[in-house]
Design brief:
Blueprint: H1 9-30, H2 35-51, H3 57-81
C-alpha cells in the first residue's frame, strides 16, 4: 500500500527549481553574514539543481557564482586581519 503519490518528472523539476532559488538567496545572504557556511551551501544547492535539470539555470548559475563570491570575500577578509571571522 502506497500512501503518497509516486514522484513524477514535474515534482523533480519543481524541487530542482526550488534548490536553484534557495542557492541564489543563500549566496546573496552569504555576502552579508555567515559566508563561511552559506557559501558552500549555495554552491552545493546550485550544483544539485543543475544536475537535476532545473528550468531556472540562470538562477542556479547566479547562486553558484554568489557562493564562490562568498568564499572569496571570506578569504579577502581573512587575509586583511588574519582571522576567520571579520567585523566592521
Amino acid at each position: 500500500m502506497q500512501l503518497t503519490a509516486p514522484a513524477t518528472r514535474r515534482t523533480g523539476t519543481r524541487d530542482a527549481d526550488g534548490m536553484a532559488v534557495a542557492s541564489f538567496v543563500l549566496g546573496l545572504l552569504g555576502l552579508l553574514v555567515l559566508n563561511v557556511f552559506l557559501g558552500p551551501i549555495a554552491i552545493a544547492l546550485a550544483g544539485a539543481a543543475l544536475w537535476r535539470g532545473t528550468t531556472r539555470r540562470g538562477r542556479a548559475y547566479l547562486g553558484l557564482a554568489l557562493g564562490v563570491a562568498d568564499l572569496v570575500v571570506l578569504l579577502a577578509f581573512m587575509q586583511a586581519d588574519s582571522t576567520v571571522s571579520w567585523s566592521f
